[in-house]
Design goal:
Distance between the termini: 22 Å
Radius of gyration: 16 Å
Number of helices: 5
Structural class: alpha/beta
Strand content: 15-25%
Oligomer: single chain
Shape: globular
């Protein structure tokens, strides 16, 4: 029987349906465990181009930061709508894989990372790799994969 309680749940959002579903499920788990949800949007400060990697310029970075804040505001609104207040929104910069497996779990004493099932197709996974699959292999704590609701009975 599973008796593990999770107090600090980390979930990354990127505006995708998978990320939003993982966030909603994280709130449900946190409610049951009287825990909190650390909801993070990681802005990759390097973009992949045909010539390799280059840094984002300032105006692009500003736009990305604005988009991230809107996503996180939506998350806070959703939490309020289900009477949940223990949400800590974070905008951070760097490699999503490294931030989600290293920096944030250490900083917030994370005991569960929840991720949406990757929305990437096989070619995209081969080119850039799935953040979800990286987290599964390298996370310092338990990981819960949230499958799309269409698969649930």
């Amino acid at each position: 029987m599973l008796t593990q309680t999770y107090k600090n749940i980390l979930v990354g959002i990127d505006g995708s349906d998978q990320g939003n579903l993982a966030y909603r499920q994280a709130i449900e788990v946190a409610k049951r465990n009287n825990g909190r949800v650390i909801v993070a949007h990681v802005i990759e400060n390097k973009v992949y181009t045909m010539m390799g990697y280059s840094s984002l310029n300032d105006s692009l970075l500003d736009q990305e930061t604005e988009n991230a804040k809107e996503l996180l505001d939506d998350c806070k609104d959703y939490a309020k709508s289900v009477d949940f207040t223990q949400v800590e929104p974070i905008v951070t910069y760097g490699s999503a894989k490294e931030v989600m497996c290293g920096d944030l779990p250490k900083k917030y004493d994370v005991d569960l990372i929840m991720v949406g099932q990757s929305g990437l197709n096989a070619v995209e996974r081969l080119m850039i790799g799935s953040v979800s699959s990286y987290i599964i292999r390298h996370a310092p704590c338990d990981v819960l994969i949230v499958h799309p609701e269409t698969n649930k009975k």
